[in-house]
Amino acid sequence: MTPFQPSAPPRPRRTLRRVGVVLISFGLVLWPAPGPLDPGPAAAAPAPRGDQGDYDESYWEPAAGKRGAELEAALHEIISTDVTVLGYGEVWDALAVTDRDPDDPDNVILLYQGTSVPAASHGGDPDQWNREHVWAKSHGDFGTTAGPGTDLHHLRPADVTVNSDRGNLDFDEGGTENDEAPGNYSDSDSWEPRAEDKGDVARMIFYMSVRYDGGDGFPDLEVNDVAGNGSAPRHGRVSVLLRWHEQDPPSEAERRRNDLIQQEFQGNRNPFIDHPEWADSIW
């Protein structure tokens, strides 16, 4: 979480009061008029807050005015330039920062459940959390390779068994509710996350589709409108993801996470958090 920086204490204000003058037949009568004439120097503006999208909008300037494939190409160039690539082991510590519980700094918030658990309790045991690849790593077979396999923009803490239940399913609606993660549903080829996570999931998938286009030695990842993509470098369903993106817009926590990934770890941003309208323009 970006440390809180309190704004400068307010300066004492000296209030000058207007003096009203009225001429009466035998002299002048003076009285104070309401309201300040000059409040003095303005108080210092409060420090910008990272959870309100504290970034330089010029970052997206090369994409301004573009649409469709031209916009996608511009965004790919922006989010692929001067990026720091993490190792898979570094992801543990990074997620403890990007997904920290604001009410308990020793905990992280789990995807799919929204519960708070100790950040130190990670690994492979059923009661621990591990690193969920929202773009399933088998969709393109990139595994945990530095790059798509370690990109924080689609990696989230998730309960070990819930992560296993989701597996490499595409995203769609319907199925049987998950016993351990109420509000999540699955069937033979798809996973439906709870309502609070649907927009987050959609924007993570959109990011991956734009970020990795095959030109840097990694698979060309593409979002499509299919459930059951298996090991193909594809993820769906885009029609459903676009609806989730609209229904569940970026939250304060999601914007704060975007800031942290750029400022503290990778140096790049998810464009669909900063500019949700770009998803409809591309797909």
What's this, in brief?
This protein is of the alpha+beta class and 283 residues long. The chain has helices at 68-79, 90-98, 160-166, 195-211, 238-247, 252-265, 271-274, 277-282, and strands spanning 17-24, 27-36, 100-101, 104-109, 116-118, 129-133, 155-159, 170-171, 176-177, 185-186, 190-192, 222-223, 234-235.
Structural topology:
Elements: E1 17-24, E2 27-36, H1 68-79, H2 90-98, E3 100-101, E4 104-109, E5 116-118, E6 129-133, E7 155-159, H3 160-166, E8 170-171, E9 176-177, E10 185-186, E11 190-192, H4 195-211, E12 222-223, E13 234-235, H5 238-247, H6 252-265, H7 271-274, H8 277-282
Parallel strand pairs: 8-11, 12-13
Antiparallel strand pairs: 1-2, 3-4, 4-5, 6-7, 9-10, 10-11
Helix pairs in contact: 4-5
How would you describe the overall organization of this protein?
- The protein has 283 residues and is an alpha+beta fold.
- 28% of the residues lie in helices and 18% in strands.
- The chain is built from eight helices and 13 strands.
- The chain has helices spanning 68-79, 90-98, 160-166, 195-211, 238-247, 252-265, 271-274, 277-282, and strands at residues 17-24, 27-36, 100-101, 104-109, 116-118, 129-133, 155-159, 170-171, 176-177, 185-186, 190-192, 222-223, 234-235.
- The strands form five sheets. The protein has a four-stranded mixed sheet with strand order 8-11-10-9, with no helix packed on it. A three-stranded antiparallel sheet has the order 3-4-5. A two-stranded antiparallel sheet has the order 1-2.
- A hairpin with a 3-residue loop joins β10 (185-186) and β11 (190-192).
